[in-house]
Amino acid sequence: MNSGDTVRIAIQGEMGSNSHMAALDMLQGAAGAAPGEIEIAACALSAEVFERVVAGKVDGAVLPIENSLHGSVAEHYDLLLEQPVRIVSESLLRVRHNLIVRPGVKLAEVRRAMSHPVALSQCRRWFVEHPEIEAVNFYDTAGSVKQVMALGLKDTAGIAPELAARQYGGEVLVAGIEDHVENYTRFHLLVRESEWEAVPAANKASLAFIVMHRPGTLVVALQEFARAGVNLTKIESRPVPGMPWEYVFFVDLRFDSSNQMDVALTGLGRQCVMVKELGRYVAA
Fold first, then answer.
1. What SS3 string covers 246-276?
2. 233 an active-site residue?
3. What is the pLDDT of residues 100-129, one digit of tens each?
4. Residue 62: strand pairing partners
5. Among 156, 185, 225, 255, which one carries the catalytic annotation?
6. Does the reported pTM lie above 0.85?
7. What is the enclosing helix (H) or strand (E) of 98?
8. DSSP state at residue 194
9. Rg (CA), the chain
10. Are 218 and 246 a contacting pair, CB within 8 Å?
11. Active-site residue flag, 185
């Protein structure tokens, strides 16, 4: 991704979403791209995002991997394992939920507020304080604002990032209605495996591995990280498709030198039937 070129980035969800915001933040920082040099490809499904990356239809993708309140995005872990992509950077985005309406609409006129179920669940306190307003599930945060504006709804609001209001011509009626201020989502910037280049300042890595099926193997595998001097910061398990009660483990590691990671990978390989390095990057 070269500065000065138009960078094409796929996201899951509509324009104006948190993923859109994260893509702009990451590309303007990592690639030095100006807003006009970033072309966003909005996809309905996460699988479509990965397909576009692998097929070379886009230069990369920005996807959420974990939320500080709701945990990991399991589907994205599965796709990271299945597809030939690499993580090149990560970012943290503070999530803010705003009540967005058509310009001029007053709060007393609003009877419904639409958004993604996860967003609605993070605004429960506000709905308790406004019992006259019904929470309505919708497929996407930014998509709810798009719908309100497209249909000209005056009694319905969307709950979405401020960017969605700018994107579709809405107005932020009430800002920051989320229950928890400390609400962050971690995003990954992904590229095709064939175009991945090592990041010289990398101090974090993500791996996936399946241990040999014998007692104590997971403990022995984890000890390889300690022996190499790397710090295990996260571990997640997912079922192995077609292999009942077998699991693939996803881990995040912090390290001081690339040599430490190479030693850890060599040691891990002795205890596992599969090891896949998902990426080395600078910790957010």
1. EEEEEEEEECCCHHHHHHHHHHHHCCEEEEE
2. no
3. 999 999 999 999 999 999 999 999 999 999
4. 189
5. 185
6. yes
7. strand 98-101
8. G
9. 21
10. no
11. yes
